[in-house]
Amino acid sequence: MSTATATAVRPGHAWPAVLAVTAGIFVIVTAEILPIGLLTSIGSGFAVSDGMAGLTMTMPGFLAAVAAPLVTVATARLDRRAVLCGLMLVLLVANALAAVATAFWVLLASRVLVGVVIGGFWSVGAGLAARLVPPVAVGRATAVVFATVPLGSVLGVPAGTLIGDLAGWRAAFAVLAVLSGAVFAALVSTLPRLPAEAPTRPAVLQGLLRSGGTRVALAATFLIVLAHFGAYTYVTPFLERVTGVGPAAVTVMLLVYGAAGIGGNLVLGAMVARFPRAAFAAAAVAIATATLLLPVFGRDPVGAVALLVLWGAAYGGVPVCSQTWFANAAPGAREAASVLFTASFQATIGLGALAGGAVVDASSPAAVMAAAGAVALLMAVLVAARRA
């Protein structure tokens, strides 16, 4: 840690700052995937198909992919504290706009803003642990930050789905706007000044893209995220139409899925440091198994829950596996590696939701599960073939 960075971190405020960044990523993850639990309600509210409603997932993903490098490069010389606080204010506005949207295009516009926030906040915030805590605690702090990904599924989506069932889907976005304001206050009060270190320039990103390790990380991330979000975006229609359960049961099932994700994050997160290839491949095989078997055994609620547990546990480790592969490919460019991780991850979320929507509208929710399983298997083969 440089002298300038070390003096910027106030003694005793390191972990509160880490927790504030963690809360920010939790709210962002929740905002991004909240429509998954509200998809049918949003679709019926605006009289659009499930595939069209899936654009609420597609838009943030694509915009985040573009925003990750653009926002990071554009703010390269700005204090990272100011950047994160400003992005959280944008998220507050986006969620408030979604809550009052009277037309579908207004809702999509709010999701564009969410995408900008995702790209910028993730790229800057995901690698800040090393600047906020002593070197000995960096690993633990990074794990805390990444635990928010499955936590968004555990708490965010089920809670939002429950609020949507009780008070309408708009109320869920209104609550998220309030939470965004609370996180903004936490960031302002706990984050120290964080002057920009080595600015991330386009040439740095271009250099990373020429690395064979980076290209493998990109391909693996593309395939596994395409498989996951191509199917998971439409898990609510699947559970309602194929499994035959109601909204309350869907909420419980999503809660179980998310809880399994926390366990998977802990297990695979610990495993990936020593066995990155095995951890990533294991996650892909488990996701493939769950999605391929859901059309068969997911017609029964018990079978559906069992497979959702497997799926959730597997996906819980995917973000930390992907980030680790990018970091290992670029050990001297932490923020640049985070930019590539965020851009590739988010672009594929959008593409997965779009492709899944096309399959759902043309065929059925069961068909999209089978297609996702095939893609996940392809990713497992890619990773297994990669030399350690």
Count up the helices. 19
Quick one: biggest sheet? none
**Quaternary status:** single chain
The helix content is over 70%
- Structural class computed from helices and strand pairing: mainly alpha
**Beta strand %:** under 5%
Radius of gyration: 20 Å
Please provide the count of β strands: 0
Kindly report how far apart the N and C termini lie.
30 Å
**Spans with pLDDT under 50 lasting ≥5 residues?**
1-12
| Mean pLDDT level | 83
SSE run:
HHHHHHHHHHHHHHHHHHH
Tell me, briefly, the overall form. Answer: globular
How would you characterize this protein structure?
It is built from 19 helices and no strands. The chain has 388 residues and is mainly alpha-helical. The longest helix is centred in the first third of the chain and has 33 residues, at 14-46. It is 84% helix and 0% strand.
Short description:
84% of the residues lie in helices and 0% in strands. It contains 19 helices and no strands.
SSE layout and pairing:
Elements: H1 3-8, H2 14-46, H3 50-53, H4 55-74, H5 80-100, H6 104-125, H7 129-132, H8 138-146, H9 148-167, H10 169-190, H11 202-209, H12 212-232, H13 235-243, H14 247-272, H15 276-297, H16 301-316, H17 318-329, H18 334-362, H19 365-385
Helix pairs in contact: 2-4, 2-5, 2-6, 2-8, 2-9, 2-10, 4-6, 4-18, 5-6, 5-10, 6-18, 9-10, 9-14, 12-15, 12-17, 12-18, 12-19, 14-15, 14-16, 14-17, 15-16, 15-17, 15-19, 17-18, 18-19
